[in-house]
Every structure is written in C-alpha cells, then in structure tokens.
Design a protein that fits this description.
About 35% of the residues lie in helices and about 20% in strands. The protein is an alpha+beta fold. Strand 4 and strand 5 form a beta hairpin. The structure holds ligand BES and zinc ion (ZN). Ligand BES binds next to loops.
Amino acid sequence: MNEILNYIDSNKDNFLGELIEFLKIPSISSEEKYKPDVLKAADWLANHIKSIGISDVKVHETEGHPIVFAQWLEAGENAPTVLVYGHYDVQPVDPLELWDSPPFEPVIKGTKIYGRGTCDDKGQLFAHLKSIESHLKINGKLPVNIKLIFEGEEECGGEAIEHFVKTNPELLKCDTVLVSDTEWYADGLPSICYGLRGISYFEITVTGPDRDLHSGTYGGTLDNPVNTLCWLVSQMHDKYGRVTIPGFYDSVIPLTQRERDGYKLLPFNEEHYCKELGIKATNGEFGYTTLERAWARPTLDLNGIFGGYTGDGAKTIIPSKASAKLSMRLVPNQTHDEIAAKFEDYIQKLAPETVKVDVKYLHGGNPFMVGLESKSISAALEALEEAVGVKPVFMRDGGSIPIVGLFQIILNAPTVLMGLGLPDDNIHSPNEKFDLRNFFSGIKASAIFLDKLAKI
Ligand code: BES
Ligand code: ZN
C-alpha cells in the first residue's frame, strides 16, 4: 500500500491539472443549451478512464444524457466486485453575479478549489479514478473487480439511469456499491453516511381570468390566482411545523433512541449554524432537533413561486396565472409514488372551484438507508480513518441521490456512502468549492478501501 500512497503524494499536481480540465466543461444537465457540453463531459470521462488503463468503457446513449459505464474484471471470479457510482452533470450557475470567479474557470485559493462541480460531484468521483489509476500504475492490476457507472442526469431528476439499472442487472452485479456524493460531518471530521432523503418534486399552476385584469375594476369580484396559490401552499403545514397532507407520515420510520442519542454526541452548535446561514433562529417540526429535522424527518418546501407583476414599481393587476415549484423531502419508508399521490389528492381537494389548478409531477426519488453491520462499511470506516487520521462518524444526510435506493433493491449489495465534501462547500450555490485536502485524502481512502475489500 505504501507505494500506492507515495504515488498519490507525488502526483498531486497531475491529478489536480486533470480535474481542472474536467471541471472546465459546463455540463449543466437541466439546461437544453448545454446538452453538447454534457456529452463532452461524458466523452472526456470515458477517454480519461481509458487513459488510466481500463479499456472496456462505453458511453451509453439514453433518452436523456449519456451514461458512462466501464469495467475491469481481471481480479477474477473469487475477488469481490465494486460498483463505483457518481454523476458528471452539475447544477446551473445562476445567480452568476454572486460568483467571485467564473464557475467554469476553476481557481485555487489556499487549500480550496472553486468552481461549479468541484465538490458535487466531479471532484468526488474523480478521487476514485485516481485511486484506481494509482493501483494500476504501481501493481499493474486492481485488488478487486471494478465497475464504474457515471450518469449525467442526477441534478435534473432524469430517469435514464433508472431504466439502465432496471434493464442491466447482470451487467451491474456487484458485492459493494461505492458512492462519493455526500459530505464529511465537519472540517476535519470524516463520516460514513447511512441515510439519505428521497424527493417528490411538483409544479403547481393556478389559472384564473384569461388575461391580467385591472385590479381596481375587477378586484374583489373574483379569485386572484396569486392569492389562491398563496392560500393553497399555506395549508400545507400546521402550527407545529408538521405537514398536513393526509397520511403523509404513515410510513415514516421513527428515529430510534439510539440514533437520537448518537446525534446528540456529534459536535453541533446552533448559534454557529445560524450565524453561518445568516438567519436569526432555526425553525421546523416541533419536537425535533436541527440535525433530526435535516436528516430524518420529511419536509415540504417551496423552491420558487412566480406570477403577476414582478417588475419595477407598481402595476395594478389581478394576474391571470400563478405557479409554484414545490418539493417534499422524504424519509424511509415513504416512497415518492405514495407521497406524490397523497399530495395530488390533497391539492385537488383543497382547490377552489373558481380557478383551475394544474399539478405537474416533475420527478421523484426514494429515500435510502443502509445497515451499519456489513463488512464493506467496516472496511470503509477503517480506510477513511487510515487515510485521514481521524475516526469517522456515522451520519445521515438531508439531500437525495435518487438512484442509490434502486441499487439497493436491484443489486442487493451494501452501499458505502463515502462522501468527501464539507458542509460549507456551497454545493448548488455560488462559489462552490472542494477542499483539496479532502480530495487527496479521499483518493487515499478509496485506494485503501479497495485493498481492504480484497482481504475480507
Ligand atoms: N450530492 C447531492 C446530494 C447531497 C446533498 C448529499 C447534500 C448530501 C448532502 C446530489 O447531487 C443532489 O444535489 N441531489 C439532488 C437530487 C434531486 C435533483 C433529485 C438533491 O438532493 O436535490
Ligand atoms: Zn451530487
């Protein structure tokens, strides 16, 4: 192992230079005009995988963005097989004016690299490629069989990977799934994540009169779609911060006392949390701590609301239409189908007959939870500890990686969420960054992990 770790240490500049090339490709999956760049990122990745010594690589076309799949199976039938998942697409960059440097021209300041996708998820997935390269360069082989699957639609809720996984269970067959698309608990404190929330994402449109009307002439004589939409969304929570959709909590697995006690032992300072976010106080479902609310309780939030006049000054109208983007974060054992149906029923029940209410389901993903007792999880804990020099903690996370739930069902292999980001990496925000110390220790952790897996 030492030689491999030395190889990593002496190739830091090369690794970083390559990562920067990858980061420069603006692979924003949700915006049509970047489609060629998403494809370019997939091709770049496939070529890079070839260049590190894995020749069986394919860019699979899909109805949406391509899936990059590669495999190296020369460790033989008796060696375990690891499936590494990641996503090469990134979030949009707006508001661009809040970036200190252009999102696709990565810059390094101190120990951090800034740019869109540095942390989520190009930097993290690249750590595994560099770990694999290091094994291949030093030993000419890998200690385990490796399959790589990288998608280009994670950030836009695309369904291509779901179809791919359902139709290719044999190709993806493995003993462990390895994903780096989450975060450490804190700077200097690595973690293994054992739970993620799911998601149900909707757009609601309320339509009233067939054109905007003078609010003096007509105001008070008909329902105003913006008022109605605001009323509708205000019906979604009670005064205890609980979601009021009938049956919403029916299949929620409650937090165990062990989890609640464990979370209390994690360093958490409510004041720092507020200060870092620029808020006066936290708030949420009554009876739960901030960590519990973020990791283990389902929520409903508006992502955006629009309609009527939003330009300069005042314009007196009753708008014709109003819309909202709304998502629910789900926890085990809720399913996105179940919750979507309950939400739609509730909205239709509440909707006044005076307006038209359209509900469009944009996408969904199921929540995820993995048991802590597998050998893969133990190996990951040890590998991270050896690479970083600090014992990792177990945590859950509030974000979603929709495909991991399906991996669990179809592949029936333990999933290791070995995230490398930091909580303040600004993923999905301006000035996204990735700490290079985490990048390099992540490469080492990955390399040690593969070695350990071969020995259990
Ligand atoms: N890497 C994130 C998931 C994540 C975020 C994990 C924060 C841990 C902490 C992932 O790329 C992501 O953002 N997923 C989307 C999925 C959605 C678009 C279906 C999310 O959670 O919003
Ligand atoms: Zn991600």
